User: Fold these one by one.
Assistant:
Number 1:
Amino acid sequence: MRIFSRELKRNLKAFLVWTISMSLFIAMIIAFYPSIADNAVDYAKMLDQLPKAMLSAFNLDTLSLADPLGFYGTEAYVLVLLFASVYAVQLGAGILSKEEDERTIEFLLSKPISRGQIVWEKIWSVFFYLTLFNVVVSGITYVGLEIVKREAYNVATLSYLFLGAYVVQLVFAALGLLISVFVTKAKSILPLSIGIVLSSYITSVMAKMSARVEFFKYLTPFSYADAGEIINTGAPQAGYMVLSLALILAAVLGTFYFYERKDITA
Amino acid sequence: MNAIETRKMTKSYGKARGIIDLDLVVSQGEIFGFIGPNGAGKSTTIKTLLNFIHPTMGSAEILGMDVVKDTVRIKKEIGYIPSEVSYYDDMTAKQLLDYSAGFYGKDCTARRKQLCELLGVEVGRKIEDLSLGNRKKVAIVQALQHSPAVIILDEPTSGLDPLVQARFFEIIREENQRGATVFFSSHILNEVQRICHRVGIIREGRLVQVDAVETLRASQYKKVKLQSSLPEGIGLINLPGVQEQANHGRFTEFLFGGDIKELLQAISSMTVEDIWIEDPSLEEIFMHYYERGEGK
């Protein structure tokens, strides 16, 4: 518990900054909904001019802007997921490597605590903040949509969207954690985090635009929570969720395994 | 049971040398000096003992416990002062000491107060704002407040001013009288001689010699340099203990291992204008003393 609570304190500021700015960002997007819903017919005409592949990449081929879920799924969801994933991968990647980058790890390792315990408590602190982040951001989104909605929508589907986004962030956090066992310099962590998230996103867009590389969708967490799929089928695909959990488990176990064995020379 | 015992402990970093076949025994209750030039493998040894890094071959025990398998149990008994102190910037000294003490599950407040007073630690200040020497003081308190059985010091005096150094040595002696074993790594022969019972010398990753400090002191050489008032210099000095004499013009340099009084008497009758007497560096001792011992 000692390291867990220490990490809560240490990561509080970043948590507040991310949560508040994400909430404001979402509130801002949702505020546009009424004007877009009112002019939905005109928007639909305009969108018809765009190439099909492009529409499909942004889910505009199957979702309607007039529908609160369709609006949220096309206008906000991907962006929110992108930013949230950067936060997740950074949080995961920084939690262990920070001690090495700041050379405080020698202090910690000279205390009677096992490396496994250190990793365990730090993982819990990441899990804690990421969960809280999703609860707040999802709550704001729900309240916002409730305020502006013009027609009824399926709240269960909305919560599946939230769940999908949460799971994707957990995958990114776990990947960040594993990577940070090997890459410990703080100045490499940020570009690496952004690089991973962006390349995952681009991969997921490619998978949607071209049937030839459709299999790419298995390679990127972004495909695991696709707004179009979730809204149209009403729930995330079980296969993707299992794959996500397997990835998380593998990355976390790998982190324990390699961290236990690595030479730490701060 | 020994405080520290290594058996053929080896650590190599890829092709680079770390330490090779280190057989080291430190008995309980002694202050053991571990000296060698920079890069000889002192820190590698300590990091292996503390399981920051894993031995490539061989094994080591502290208080009879394996340094890899039992590292958590071992650390309950250890106090460690690193050569470079890095702590959490956002903490005050007090917060750091609390954080540290918490891991041992015992009340350290009385001893901490003593140590902080002895060393003059300002516990209320942020570690970020402390000077190097003051951070080192925090490191000392952090390592000793839980009264460890084995104290491991990696160049502990760097950054401390002479007055605090003297205090520090006093504290270490007290800890030793209390029963603690001290493993003192340094590249400064002088400070090791001041406090240690036995000394092990490491060079290029290998332990070359373990001696009682008296032996080392008896074999201690001085580096002497004389400047003559005459242009032709002093000439050959005929005195037992003078070695490797070299003359360049007015200057004469040699190593002296004999009776210092005899030397002074001899010098007083020479045409000497100026004189320098220094402790040779550790490297020079290796060159002139231990290398011959090794070559036997």
Number 2:
Amino acid sequence: MIGNDLVDLQAASRESRCSRKGYLQKLFAESEQIMIKTSNHPDMCIWTLWSMKESAYKIHSRKTGERKFAPTKLLTCGMEINGEEMTGSIQTEGSIYFTKTWIRTNYIYSIAAESSDALPLIFTQLHFRPKQLDYRKHQPACVSHHGDYLALAFCY
Amino acid sequence: MDKQELINRLKPIVSAYAQNKEALDSINEQTDFINDLKINSANLVDVVLDVEEEFDILIDNESMESMLTVGASMAVIEAKIKEK
């Protein structure tokens, strides 16, 4: 199983007020809050962590068959920046998921897999302002739609 | 507070984030925030924070876990109002 999550940064700044009281505490574990607060780009840090956690959640919720809104339980436990790409891992309820994130000017995009070996087997079709949203015929393994972007993830 | 009054106070909160405005007309306890109202998952936290303000309650992260539907949110709100 794989997961993906895209954050359209323009849409995010329009739709979310990250400076709200209690916002960070409800979404991020203490260690993550420290990363955000000490970051030179707190908003970018917020959406990077969020997309990593959300892409891992998409696998975890399907694996357990359980949906819940428990973002603080998805814990970022490793991050390594390599140019404009970043690899990391997310731990939750005894499972670990491996993530890869691309940080771009207009969006942040993460993919997640159950092993780090599986990450290179994921490929993504990224659509900007797709005219028709009938993507089901392509049978993607995972879909993320936010703002102007539609990301379809497939597995080799 | 009866259930209809609760839904009536919840509706304007979720309306602000719902991308499927049509589903708002038939909002009921079964309405799912993500699947029916098409609320972006990154906005679920805003729904929770708005609910805290509207009902003057504090929602701990454990209670927040279930808040994916109107009905589950109503149960959390009712429990937190009782605790006050």
